[in-house]
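Title: Request for sanity check on Arginase prediction

Description:
We are preparing a figure and want to confirm that the structure record we downloaded matches what your pipeline produces today. Could someone re-run it with the sequence below and paste the raw structure tokens into this thread? We only need the token string, no images.
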Amino acid sequence: MGLVNKGMTVLHFDETYKLQSKLQLFPHENIDFYDLQHVNLYCEQDSLTKIEQRLAERRKKGMTLIGSGNYHYVTSSLLKEIKEPFTLVLFDHHPDIGRSDESDTLLSCGSWVSYALKNIPMLKKAVIIGPTSLKNQDSSLPNATIFPYNSHRVSSKMILSNIPTNTVYISIDKDVLKKTDAITNWDQGQMSLASLLHYIEELLQYKNVYGMDICGEAKFSPDQYFDPNFQDALRKNESANIKILQTFFEGASHLIGA
């Protein structure tokens, strides 16, 4: 088992990643989306079509850095590329499955998982780890299993036993992490970065990982650049990103004997 695709692509909806200078040292390709409108939180169809056209041109599909969790819906476009049965393994403080009374007319960062389960035939199941509460969430989807994460750590064995396919795709929103490990623009969970890295290692060992993405960058305006809170968030998020990337790529290299 191990990693199906290689390389890393960085998506730029804003300037966030360009401020993470150490992150830039990893070989990668860039895709800019600065020109697109109506893509924050919700995405209109015209912009979604342009996003998917640009994604289709990339060569490095192993890892994708998305940016803020406001753009997490991009994961659903990445999942459309998978041509074999697979399971989405999502680490997120929010299940992103929306509510039963919400409209499906616009793809959003809060409902993209239910959209993907309904519209991507090869996606057989979503396994979601990280919410501390399921309040106000519709958790009745028959092909979604949600593991709340609070004071009780979810075992890797339990996660793996709920994955029905050999192939998985991993998606990470850093709001699943404690604030000591990352800072996002959403309320955050209680998972440690060390626990998250362990889960990634286990998935690489026992499953074929088609690819992985990371979001959860803090959104700040340019005039906040010298704010100590911004600098703290930038430092923590870059450090978390780098540790996740190292675990992902080094773990995959070890498994294939590279």
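Thanks, this matches our download. The longest helix spans residues 228-256.
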